[in-house]
Design goal:
The protein is α/β, with parallel strands linked by helices and 284 residues long. The chain is built from eleven helices and seven strands. Strand 6, helix 10 and strand 7 form a beta-alpha-beta unit. The longest helix is centred in the C-terminal third of the chain and has 26 residues. The relative contact order is 0.17.
Length: 284
C-alpha cells in the first residue's frame, strides 16, 4: 500500500524536481523520494495554502487581504416543515417549522495578482507526478481555487464523509488557534490594528503596521496561518506523513511547527513528521 505524504512548501520542489538541485547534499534522498512518487510507492499531496496564501508575494499579502470584499448573493427563503427537519434540528426548535434562508457568499480580492511563474511551475511539476492539492480549512469568505474537472484536489467525499472531514478540519484548526498559533496570530494583530481606528473586521487594517518590525511580524503571521491550516487539513484527510524542513525557528514567536507544538500534534492527532532526508532514507 502506498505511503501517503503531505509535502510542505519547503520540500515540494526538492521531491518533485530534484534535478534542479544537483549540488544539494540530499540529492540521493531527493532522488529516492522522486522515484517513489513516479512508481506510486508514495502518494503525494501538498496544501492549497501554498497557492492561496503563500502564492501572494510577502510584501503584498497584507494589502490583498485587507482589500477582501464579501458579497451575499442569490438570497432566498424557504419554509421547511417540522417533519422534514433533521432530528438534531427538531430537538432544538421543538414542534415548529423553520424558515431556511440560503445565500451565496462571493469573495473578491481586487489586489490579488496572478500566481508568480515559479509557483505555477512548481504546482505543474507536482501535478505531473500525480500529486493532488489538499483543500484548505473551510472558512467564511476564504479565497478558493475551483476544481471543475475534479482532478486538482484530493476528494473529501460526500454526505457523511464530507461532514466528518469538515468537522475534523474545524475542530483541529480551532485547537491550533487556542494554542496561539496558526491563524490566531494574524487575527490578533489584525484586530489590534483595526481597533486603532478602522473599527472593521480583523483583516481590515493589516496594512496599518506602525513600523518595519510590525510589518515583518504580519508577514510571518501569514506564513504561520498557512502552516496551521496545512496541518489541520493534513489531519482531516488522515494523511500518513507530514514532510517538512520547517522547525518553527523563524517565526519570532510561537509556531505550530516548533518542538512543543509538534509534540502536541504527535500526541493528540498522531501526526508523523519526517524530513525529506528521513523520508528518503526510509525508502532504502
Amino acid at each position: 500500500m502506498a505511503l501517503r505524504v503531505t509535502f510542505d512548501t519547503n520540500v515540494l520542489d526538492l521531491a518533485c524536481r530534484p534535478e534542479r538541485f544537483s549540488k544539494n547534499p540530499l540529492q540521493p534522498q531527493m532522488s529516492r523520494v522522486n522515484e517513489a512518487l513516479q512508481s506510486g510507492k508514495i502518494k503525494g499531496f501538498y496544501s492549497v495554502t501554498m497557492l492561496t496564501i503563500e502564492g501572494i508575494m510577502k510584501a503584498d499579502r497584507a494589502a490583498v487581504y485587507q482589500g477582501t470584499r464579501l458579497t451575499a448573493k442569490h438570497e432566498e427563503s424557504k419554509l421547511v416543515t417540522n417533519a422534514n427537519l433533521p432530528p438534531s434540528i427538531r430537538e432544538f426548535v421543538g414542534n415548529g417549522d423553520v424558515e431556511r434562508i440560503t445565500s451565496t457568499l462571493s469573495v473578491d480580492q481586487p489586489g490579488r495578482k496572478e500566481l508568480p511563474a515559479g509557483m505555477k511551475e512548481r504546482a505543474r511539476a507536482a501535478h505531473a507526478l500525480g500529486l493532488r492539492a489538499l483543500k484548505a480549512v473551510p472558512r467564511i469568505g476564504a479565497f478558493q481555487i475551483s476544481d471543475d474537472s475534479g482532478s486538482f484536489y484530493l476528494d473529501t467525499g460526500s454526505d457523511g464523509q464530507l461532514t466528518a472531514w469538515i468537522d475534523t478540519a474545524h475542530r483541529v484548526s480551532r485547537a491550533i488557534e487556542e494554542r496561539g498559533v496558526g491563524l490566531a496570530q494574524l487575527k490578533s494583530m489584525g484586530e489590534r490594528l483595526a481597533n486603532y481606528g478602522t473599527d472593521g473586521p480583523w483583516f481590515s487594517a493589516l496594512t496599518q503596521a506602525k513600523d518595519i518590525h510590525e510589518e515583518r511580524a504580519i508577514e510571518r503571521a501569514f506564513a504561520e496561518w498557512a502552516d496551521g491550516d496545512s496541518l489541520a487539513s493534513h489531519i482531516a484527510y488522515g494523511i500518513d506523513v507530514f514532510c517538512t524542513l520547517d522547525k518553527g525557528n523563524s517565526n519570532g514567536a510561537k509556531s505550530i511547527l516548533d518542538s512543543t507544538n509538534r509534540k502536541w500534534l504527535e500526541d493528540e492527532y498522531g501526526v508523523r513528521f519526517m524530513t525529506l532526508e528521513e523520508l528518503g532514507e526510509s525508502l532504502t
